[in-house]
């Protein structure tokens, strides 16, 4: 924001009736006005600074917000009260949020004087593309006599209607910044939007979004505390509430410290059902299907008699799900933002998964067989046909499943992580049972051995064909690395792929040799793998890819400040929370959000499309996810025009769902 030199103080202007001579600039016309046409000595009356601003210019409230300065009005010839401030507007100025007035505003004070000769000095700051301080001296002379409403009295009446009223509701502010507003008339049917403006600077982050949650009898606003926030002190300011008809009520509140309401969680039985269904549907996601197909081949190899294998596979799935749940709980206890798929925000983990899937593909292609040596530890165990292979296939299935999100999973994961740790572990265990259930069912159906095809060369061909989905997944993960760690990360991961490929080749070649060459081959493979691990250790320091920092054509990069500004302007907004490693997100973008019909509907409705990239788990996006009851991506939220109630869309999108959302109800 640019600042110009202060405007010159204009000379004292002669009084004209009950409105002073104006102080003018290309930006503002300022006068001093009164609500009475006469005065009685010692009796109070009101005078006010009346600012009429040119198009696009604005001035500020008593708390200007992130920038600006409040107007002042000093009275001479009498005693003046503090300014009686009308309700301000929220004004977005680039990345900052300010509070103030546009067009015109009256800032009155109550005066008690012995004579009708009133002099005043005022200062105000006006801003557009630049900010310019202005000031002026004013004079008014009121005759002594019985007062009657002046010609300017309607200005004061309009001002009185714009002043926030005393609040009829009980309010409290929680230590985490949650503002709780209680009243019997506050329900989801009556409250569509609300926001809070503090009357003192430095208490909250003014530009942060204020997510609204309405329940019967109360609602909450999730404020972001600023460094000046005191959890043991009251928080006062203007609360604005908009109802379904669009009527806005502005009240002054003085919230006392108190606890935040306990989150309303779905019943445990419903959460567990959602967890099982989410895990079950996860088998149909592109992340997991190749793994399930690989185990189906193994089941056919055993003629359908795979009870031990199915139990081992299920155990691998459950152990990995429980480990993920424990990792999430530990990360959250340490204050780290973590949700479903959190490990994919690390380029080290993504690179390691790239190498592991590439090694599994090499094993399926027959480059090497399962045996001793480092290269066989992950890929070999997953590709072998024994019980241990089933266990590690279950482990691999869970690891590759985390970039995908299935229906029902969002509610289950969010509710599980909001519950006590024991419930969190139970929810993740049930999700694992859902993921493992198709393979268990295949192994448990009576008579399956009679309908399964007989083992033969077709199985070896199918096994080799299944290597290509693994290679494809490795290529996709290499792209994810490019989004997270840039060209340096891609180079490091590609070098690791060469080393893993060499390790697989030399291990496979040595398996057909005698004892001494075999040991040499195993040692060479081990050195190659250790070299790759050394590369992996330095990958975390690679710079973030530039692709994550730029918005795509037709979209805006998400920021809480920009979202709050757009909502304050009454504009419709569609928020898309995604990540480079989220397969579900990428599919939704291709089939439901990037079609010509949806683009045209967004343009016709004036919808701002905001996209948040959670690839590296941006804390602002993590906060937004949690405020909307989610702990992972994708998340799609639509904010209708004029402050309508937000709509959270399903995690699996279709074009028709998006178009139906945009149609007026």
Automatic annotation (TrEMBL):
Query: Where does the record say this protein resides?
Result: Membrane
Q: Where is the Cytochrome C biogenesis protein transmembrane domain?
A: 272-478
According to the UniProt entry, its GO molecular function terms are: protein-disulfide reductase activity
Pfam families documented for this protein: DsbD_N (PF11412), DsbD_TM (PF02683), Thioredoxin_7 (PF13899)
Write out the entry's keywords from A to Z. Answer: Cytochrome c-type biogenesis, Membrane, Signal, Transmembrane, Transmembrane helix
Query: SUPFAM superfamilies under this entry?
Result: Thioredoxin-like
Domain Thiol:disulfide interchange protein DsbD N-terminal, by residue range, is: 34-141
Transmembrane intervals: 271-292, 313-335, 347-370, 391-419, 425-449, 461-482, 488-508, 520-539
Tell me if Phosphoprotein is a UniProt keyword of this record. no
Q: Listed GO cellular component terms?
A: membrane
Name of this chain's protein: Uncharacterized protein
Q: Which organism is it from?
A: Rhodopila globiformis
């Amino acid at each position: 924001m640019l600042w110009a030199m202060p405007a010159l103080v204009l000379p004292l202007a002669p009084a004209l009736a009950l409105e002073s001579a104006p102080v003018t600039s290309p930006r503002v016309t300022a006068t001093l006005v009164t609500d009475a046409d006469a005065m009685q000595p010692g009796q109070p009356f009101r005078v006010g600074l009346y600012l009429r601003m040119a198009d696009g210019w604005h001035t500020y409230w008593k708390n200007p917000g992130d920038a600006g300065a409040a107007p002042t009005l000093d009275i001479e010839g009498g005693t003046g009260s503090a300014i009686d401030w009308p309700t301000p507007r929220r004004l977005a100025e680039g990345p900052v949020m300010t509070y103030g007035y546009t067009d015109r505003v009256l800032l009155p004070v109550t005066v008690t004087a012995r004579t009708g000769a009133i002099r005043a000095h005022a200062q105000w700051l006006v801003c557009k593309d630049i900010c310019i301080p202005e000031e002026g001296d004013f004079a008014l002379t009121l005759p002594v006599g019985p007062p009657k409403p002046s010609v300017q009295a309607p200005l004061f009446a309009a001002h009185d209607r714009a002043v926030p009223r005393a609040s009829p509701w009980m309010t409290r502010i929680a230590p985490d910044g949650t503002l709780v507003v209680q009243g019997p008339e506050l329900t989801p049917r009556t409250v569509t939007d609300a926001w809070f403006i503090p009357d003192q600077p430095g208490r909250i982050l003014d530009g942060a979004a204020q997510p609204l949650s309405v329940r019967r009898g109360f609602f909450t606003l999730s404020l972001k505390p600023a460094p000046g926030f005191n959890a043991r002190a009251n928080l006062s300011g203007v609360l604005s509430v908009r109802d379904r008809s669009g009527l806005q009520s502005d009240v002054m509140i003085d919230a006392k410290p108190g606890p935040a309401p306990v989150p309303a969680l779905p019943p445990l039985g419903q959460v567990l059902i959602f967890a099982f269904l989410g895990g079950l549907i996860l088998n149909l996601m592109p992340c997991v299907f190749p793994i399930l197909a690989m185990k189906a081949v193994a089941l056919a190899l055993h003629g359908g008699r795979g009870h031990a294998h199915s139990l081992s596979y299920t155990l691998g799935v459950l152990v990995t799900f429980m480990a993920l749940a424990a990792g999430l709980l530990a990360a959250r206890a340490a204050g780290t933002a973590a949700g479903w798929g959190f490990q994919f925000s690390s380029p080290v983990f993504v690179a390691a998964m790239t190498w592991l899937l590439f090694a599994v593909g090499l094993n399926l292609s027959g480059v090497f067989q399962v045996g001793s040596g480092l290269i066989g530890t992950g890929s070999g165990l997953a590709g072998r046909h024994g019980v241990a292979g089933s266990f590690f296939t279950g482990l691999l299935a869970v690891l590759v499943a985390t970039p995908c999100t299935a229906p029902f999973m969002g509610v289950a994961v969010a509710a599980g992580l909001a519950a006590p740790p024991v419930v969190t572990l139970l929810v993740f265990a049930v999700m694992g049972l859902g993921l493992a259930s198709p393979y268990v069912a295949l192994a448990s159906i009576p008579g399956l051995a009679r309908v399964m095809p007989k083992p033969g060369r077709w199985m070896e061909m199918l096994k080799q064909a299944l290597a290509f989905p693994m290679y494809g997944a490795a290529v996709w993960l290499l792209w994810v690395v490019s989004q997270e760690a840039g060209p340096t990360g891609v180079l490091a991961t590609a070098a690791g792929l060469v080393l893993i490929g060499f390790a697989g080749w030399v291990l496979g070649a040595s398996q057909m040799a005698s004892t001494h060459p075999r040991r040499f081959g195993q040692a060479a493979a081990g050195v190659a793998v250790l070299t790759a691990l050394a590369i992996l250790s330095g990958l975390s320091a690679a710079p973030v890819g530039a692709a994550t920092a730029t918005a795509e054509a037709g979209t805006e990069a998400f920021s809480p400040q920009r979202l709050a500004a757009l909502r304050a302007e009454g504009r419709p907004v569609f928020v898309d929370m995604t990540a480079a490693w989220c397969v579900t997100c990428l599919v939704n973008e291709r089939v439901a959000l990037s079609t010509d019909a949806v683009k045209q509907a967004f343009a016709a409705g004036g919808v701002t499309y905001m996209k948040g990239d959670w690839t590296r788990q941006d804390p602002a996006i993590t906060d937004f996810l949690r405020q909307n009851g989610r702990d992972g991506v994708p998340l799609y939220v639509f904010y209708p025009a004029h402050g309508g109630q937000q709509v959270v869309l399903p995690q699996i999108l279709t074009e028709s769902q998006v178009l139906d959302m945009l149609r007026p109800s």
